[in-house]
Design a protein that fits this description.
CATH class: Mainly Beta
Largest sheet: 7 strands, mixed
Strand content: 25-35%
Distance between the termini: 39 Å
Number of strands: 7
Number of helices: 4
Strand order of the largest sheet: 1-6-7-2-3-4-5
Oligomer: single chain
CATH topology: SH3 type barrels
Helix content: 10-25%
Structural class: alpha/beta
Length: 158
Amino acid sequence: MGSINPQGDTRSGANVIGGGVGEGPGPEIMAAATLDGNKVMSSDGEHVGKISDIMLDVRSGRIAYAVLAEGGFLGMGANLHAIPWNALTLDTDQKCFHVDITAQRLKDEPGFDKDHWPTMADSKWGTTTHSYYNRQPYWLATQEVVEDDPDVRSPLGH
């Protein structure tokens, strides 16, 4: 995976690499449930866990985070991490996600457990989480696109 500039990546979604374009859904548009259980590989090539949930920002209609389950057995005792969606790359050939962070850095992030989720709608928590993964918060990345593009700002393009 490529390196990230210090200001963070400004794309608002996950990258997709590999083949798999064809009829029907995927890989550009697919059901979120098909991604549950996909393994996640760190930037240094270590299997760090599996996707347990895809979290939607209901008001904006955007994917906010993928929840990574690290460790545990059959979902029990796993440490959970909210990874910004734009910090992930879906590899359709390897059928996994790559996260642009080392395994040790991911393990050093405290995360949370299934009974004590953070308040994900809290912008302070979200900004801190995105910063940990060297990403601009998704709500700011798309806000800049809308503010800078008059065709996006105006529903009729006027």
